[in-house]
Design brief:
Blueprint: H1 5-65, H2 67-111
Length: about 110
């Protein structure tokens, strides 16, 4: 059954308010999202600029005043880290050797008469 031009026109006219409402809703949501993203970008730019100009110089000054302490602490930290790593590797090696020795005894017991 084919629709006549009048029937098609009537269906379109009946659907038009719903279509307009949906289109307006979509346009409104898209515009709202765009505005939100633009605001986020602008605020982020301002925060970044403020931190670079106002905060970082004071942080750098503070770090410079503590330079000796920071270097000394880094050296101590590296020495402690090496000691901890050395101890952990020695312990792991002991376990590996112990397991190897235990496996060797087990295999000999299983396969020798």
């Amino acid at each position: 059954m084919e629709l006549t031009t009048e029937q098609t026109q009537k269906i379109i006219e009946e659907m038009m308010p719903d279509l307009k409402a949906k289109m307006l809703d979509q346009v409104s949501k898209a515009a709202s999202w765009e505005v939100s993203e633009k605001c986020k970008a602008l605020v982020l730019d301002q925060v970044t600029e403020f931190i670079e100009k106002e905060v970082m110089p004071e942080v750098a000054e503070n770090l410079l005043s503590q330079k000796g302490f920071l270097i000394e602490s880094a050296i101590k930290f590296s020495e402690i880290s090496v000691d901890i790593l050395k101890d952990a590797m020695a312990e792991q090696l002991k376990k590996s050797l112990s397991n190897s020795w235990s496996r060797e005894k087990l295999f000999k017991a299983m396969f020798t008469e």
